[in-house]
Design brief:
By secondary structure, the protein is of the alpha+beta class. It is built from five helices and 14 strands. It has a single domain, classed as Cyclic Phosphodiesterase, Chain: A (Alpha-Beta Complex), CATH 3.90.1140. Helix content is 23%, strand content 35%. The strands form three sheets. Strands 1, 4, 5, 7, 13 and 14 form a six-stranded antiparallel beta sheet that branches. Strands 6, 8, 9, 10, 11 and 12 form a six-stranded antiparallel beta sheet that branches. The longest helix has 20 residues. The protein starts with 7 loop residues before the first strand and ends with a strand.
Length: 236
């Protein structure tokens, strides 16, 4: 199936490569680099969008968390991911030139035809990487088998063949709801905050989400924050 043109998405912070090369580790973010009106090098990643009903419930969970943070005087502690930007990252690539994006699209064209939609469960949100020093809030994504891991691994050969570096850390599927702003990281009030679990207040305590599409996203810097633009879409 030919990739389908995409549309802009909302703000979401990405990372870029520390040194390039196959399987290189990735670190701190940088803005998109533009020549005229064309972005020639920008952070890119492969990921899955979420169904509307799952996004709606995630927004309910976000509001629940926002109220708890505000009650603790921490309403400015977290930058929240916009509803249209919520997604599950499959492979993070870092900065990629336009011609490499096209090469990757060509390689992935048809390779997703043998892949099926995935039934997943979004677990209640929690601080990551650990409550003692949180950098964000995310919902781990689980499933009955290992299809997500297999999908992640199925995309890697095309990434390597396109000559792209990718984040080689172990794959931990999740949906990020928000990131702790740098000036609040390590704050005692945040570390000691005991969030009321969403499963106590809301049903369903877990969200089922069928993942039907894989997208190639490009991050574009704007004065209002980063935009996620879908460069291509493959239907599972």
């Amino acid at each position: 199936m030919r990739p389908q043109p995409g549309r802009p998405h909302g703000a979401y912070l990405c990372q870029r490569s520390a040194g390039g090369g196959f399987g290189s580790r990735l670190e701190a973010p940088g803005p998109a680099v533009k020549t005229g009106t064309a972005v020639t090098r920008a952070n890119c990643f492969l990921g899955c969008s979420l169904p509307e009903d799952a996004v709606s419930w995630l927004c309910v969970w976000q509001r629940h968390l926002q109220k708890q943070l505000a009650a603790a005087g921490l309403e400015q502690a977290v930058g929240w991911v916009r509803p249209e930007s919520l997604h599950l990252t499959l492979v993070f690539l870092g900065p990629v030139q336009d011609r490499s994006c096209q090469r990757l699209q060509d390689l992935l064209d048809g390779r997703c035809d043998d892949l099926s939609a995935l039934d997943t469960v979004l677990q209640p949100p929690r601080f990551f990487p650990k409550p003692a020093r949180p950098r964000g809030l995310w919902c781990p994504v689980t499933e009955s088998g290992e299809c997500l891991q297999q999908l992640h691994e199925a995309l890697l050969p095309a990434v390597v063949e396109a000559g792209l570096a990718y984040d080689a850390k172990p794959f931990r599927p999740h949906v990020t709801l928000g990131r702790v702003r740098r000036r609040f990281q390590g704050r005692r009030e945040l570390k000691s905050l005991q969030l009321i679990p969403v499963e106590v207040l809301f049903q369903p305590p877990q969200l089922r989400a069928e993942l039907r599409q894989v997208h190639l996203y490009r991050t574009e810097a704007t004065p209002q924050g980063n935009l996620y633009r879908r460069l291509a879409t493959w239907v599972l």
